[in-house]
Amino acid sequence: MTINTKAVRIILLATMLIASFYSLTGTSLFEFFANLSGSYFNAILIINLSAIVIIFLTVIAGVKLEKIVYVISLVFCFPAVMYHSKINWFQIIWGLKFYDSHPFVLTALTVIYSAVGAIFTGSTLKFESQGDDWIATGANKTDVAEIFKNRLEILIFVVGLISVPVFLIAILSSLINLPYNWAMGPVIIAIIGALLAAIAVYYFLSGDQKSN
Amino acid sequence: MVLSAPIVRMLKLFCWILLIGVFFANSIIIMLAFIPFVFALVGIFLKPPSAISIERSFSRDKVFSGETIEARLDIEIGSGLGIVELSEILPRHFEVVEGCNYKVIWKGLGPKSFKMTYSIKCTTSGTYYIGNTAIKINQSILGHISSGMERNPITLEVRPRLFDTGKAKSSSNFSKIPMPLGSLANMGMPTLEFKEIKQYSYGDPFRYINWKATARNLNRGGYWPVINEYEKEGKKSVWIYLNISKSMNMGSNIRNSFESGLEAANALAEFYIKQNLFVAFGTYNDMVEFIYPGTGEKHYHKILKLILRCSSNIAAVKNAGVKQLSLKESVVSHKKYLAGSKPLFVIVTRYSDKFSEQLEQGIDEMSKHTVNKKGIYQIMVINIIGYGMAAEATTEKLAAQLLHLKDKNKIQKLRKKCIWIDWDPSQMSFSKALMSQVVGI
Description:
heterodimer, A: mainly alpha, B: Jelly Rolls, 14 helices
């Protein structure tokens, strides 16, 4: 079975954009735009038109369409993600308070879907351009097609390996409402994070010393 | 354990996102951080291809320029999973005519072995070292991991082409190739080979007096005896001079007038040595070398070795500060080897305005040491017309013809002094050019 990667990419990018815009509509930032423009419809129109103009300009400037679409998707998700922060530095420093009417699971799934989609589209694009380079250098087309097929299979496997547990964690945590209400949750996360950061810093410092 | 660059990049990304997640105490961002972490883990556990062994073989190790050889590589990849890029590094004068010297291959879970074959055309003579393979390893999804080089070069000797022997051996063509007229020695032991009749002079042996001819001479009123003169012991000699300068570099890397010059010099040296003549070989301008007159297979190999050495980069020779000599200076400096002989001089060059005066001076100097027959000295100039080799499009070819016509007018004066042969390697072979243009020698 041959996979039409271009069609998959278009579907992924379109759904990423729609899902992330939907997550934006539940935030206080969207409320702010709606108040500013006079109605919800005007806010939707202005935001989407602005996104289209940005996409158009950046594509003209030479940025790949896929890249700018997933950057805009992540920007749309940003206010909703910030609402779920235990420590909101924007509120502490500038008094900016984020609000999200959507449930945690929906925001988490939208963000994870956008990130995974971005990885998939970016990787397939990279595989294709690498394949074109190989063919231009003189590689056999059947060899390159075989490589693309095998790489795609591994990529789908890895994306699945990432998505399934992360989606499950997001859904389960929303069901038991663990990260939001459990008082020890942030503390455990902070400890794990600090430990991982310390290990990472140690690894990189020791690597630098070895290379010196 | 040393991690490859893409894995380190993924781990760094994981750390950054995790730090941001911890900074904001945001569970969604922390979950996102695990995406690059999983990629890094996949990179660590899916080992890239390794234990690559290459066995290389070539169909021949000695070829003439313009011939093709087949290269065959038996490659085995022992372990790992991913992509392997293999590229055979070839000298710039080699042309791949069949197959490809580059291959990208997917290495699955088991060991993999495959063959890579290609044919190369060796267009420029010289000694080459071929057999270095650049290897690039790519992890299945993270991309480029490492590069390396498998070095197992073999020596390949590419010799300049020789005469089309079939053509040169036919009696009608053979007589067209100029031969030296003067003997090697004016002094020395006479052989039994009759040369001419001449008047007796003091010191000539009496046994050489030709009594019949002397009697006839007396009838005509001459009283002085006439003697037979015999060729002196020794051989006739040919001196070949090759122009080594940037003006010879007309054409591409693969086909140029310098390479054609080497071919002409080699073909002539081999031909004259096979005729049992003494052959001297010299170069002038940017590289000055000289091999004194000699004969035999060993001597030919000496000349061939120098010809192969000449084919190395001319610019490098010039930059190395080697002394430069014009054709005239070169002939003068090797004058001592000319003593008693009247050789046939062969100059292999490409006519250019820059060196026209120098060429004329050289011909004038050579004419002092050779025989003049019917007003033409025994000097043969092989002029390689290189314009055709640099032209590809129709307009370029027309321009090449115009440039040649322009040169033709300028070389009229030189043509009168010597045997002038124009050779356009893009149009015909050297033997054909030689046989179609040598007239009345």
